[in-house]
Protein: Pectinesterase
Organism: Flavobacterium petrolei
Amino acid sequence: MSCFQKIIIAFVFVCTAGSGLQSQILNKNWKDIVAIDDKAWFSSTEAREIAENVLLYQRNIGGWPKNIQMQKILSEEEKQNLEALKTDPMDSTTDNGATCMEMLFLSKIYAQVPNEKYKKAFLNGLDYLLAAQYENGGWPQFYPLKKGYYSHITFNDDSIVNILEILKNLIDGTDYYSIKPSQETLLRLQKAFDKGIDCILKTQYKQNGQLTAWCAQHDEFTLLPAKARAYELPSLSGKESAKIVLLLMAIENPYKEIITAINSAVVWFEKTKITGIKEERQRVGNTKVFDKVMMKDLNAAPLWARFMELDTNTPFFCDRDGVKKGSLAEIGSERRNGYAWYTNEPKEVLKKYPLWKKTYMVSLDKSSIKNTKSSKNEWYSVVAKDGSGDYSSIQEAINDSNSFPYQRKTIFIKNGIYYEKVKIHEWNTNISLIGESKEQTIITYDDYFNKINLGKNSTFYTYTMLVEGEGFVAQNLTIQNSSGEVGQAVALTLNANKVLISNCIILGNQDTLYATGNGNKQYVKDCYIEGTTDFIFGKATVLFENCTLNSLKDSYITAAATPEDVAYGFIFKNCKLTAAPEVTAVYLGRPWRIHAKTVFLNCEMGKHIKPEGWHNWSKPEAEKTVLYAEYNCTGDGFLPKSRVTWSHQLRKSEAKKYSLENCLGSDFSNAIKAGLLESKIKY
């Protein structure tokens, strides 16, 4: 045999082997292909060809249809049809693993072939999951919503658990997904995850006052067990409940409601397990048909019914007529053999439960001891998202504080994302909220004008945090309205006197910080404040010192409403005015009310500040009544000769009047100078 013949034979062998391998892959089920644990394969041409199909099937909304074998080779006509379908969102779903499986596949291939189109599609899928979530934390089977049972909160086939596991892996920063979202997106994921867990806790069914398990579907409004297809009646599910509990058990440092949910579900699993039977397939005569039957076997592993009566836990079975039967043998062959009526999935819960209980029940006992000790100090408490403090929510700690106390109450907030509206009531005076770190102690909520929908004054209900108690202090916190650019949406409302906000990050878009109240004096120092239009507004006297004011769009920084008889409005000293890269035209302020007073002293102004500096808000009369002034500022945006003629450049003698004492009063300023308000606590 010649050398050339040997080369030809070798070439044919390699091609044949390659073709066989490709055939093996393409013959697999799509779910099995996604589960392939071969990094080298995900860098292959074959994997990339399948990835192109995955991209084609994704709708513009970000989701995918279900039950698609993505590996199937497509004709040019089929590809064109899929391109035309991209704008139709109505078959997008998370049912049967759809969307979640495609996102995992894209993540795996991106790890080997870091093409930005894979990342973009993955993040688009993530946006789809976030958009599909109900306000109560649940997810429907299809989004956009379809009529019928498709809109129910759907635990069926682990749909919601699959979503929450994606969010959890990304939040925890594991390497399971190679694509890493932005910090802003991670905040959205944390909020969505927390809401999802809250929905799980609220939908756990109570049977005679005792928590049990979950139904495959729950009504999206009442949260009660709901019907799906004719043979899927409201019931407790042995299958879906198992994955829910495993998810809850994977949460580190669970708070008491999660611990209670897990313990209750385990009791229910133990109570409802079926022993002494096993499922077998028996050939029907000489045909190729195999029938599912339940056989007695004293050594069989426990099973659980897919459907159990809500009040008695009695297993039942249904045909397509929706009539309950007491045994599998009583329903027709098509449903008997074409549906999973029993499951062994709870066995994993019972297997993992002893170690989980040893870990967290001991921790709970220790935490209870610690909480008992710390609760003796009524002037200091700890809030921790993970349940390791005295409280797991900020509002709970505030509500448990003394009214009109004679000394200061300090509430230390450990790092975490706290998705809640926080209100410091008028009677909660001398409260200090001290965060563990301003970057990682985040209070966030997402109300906005149209969502509140209470008429003309809806803006004032949109706050994430509302302060009405005199003597309030916030330190080392992020306070955020996360609703996005959707109109008026307040992050922080200060409607109290003698308020100190120190070393905080205040984030929003329009109307970020509302500082108000007749005669109220407030001090904001070393803070970062961000927004779009009028993102600092109100009628209080506020001294901002050493702050960064970051504009996110061409608009206005301030909208003061200073009363006519008040000497000082908004005063900015030693502040820095910055902007997003695309922002080029920002006004220092405009008058919400015609006696507005706003002054910038020794501030550094970026080039985004408009030369004219100030706007009259189409109120010519305000030009005679406002006090808009600057002194000794610097930067490309400080153009005193180009300012509107009705603004002022202060003389040194005039600038001296804007002292801490003059602006805020002697009592408040003396407390600030003496450091009596700022906490030195280290946890």
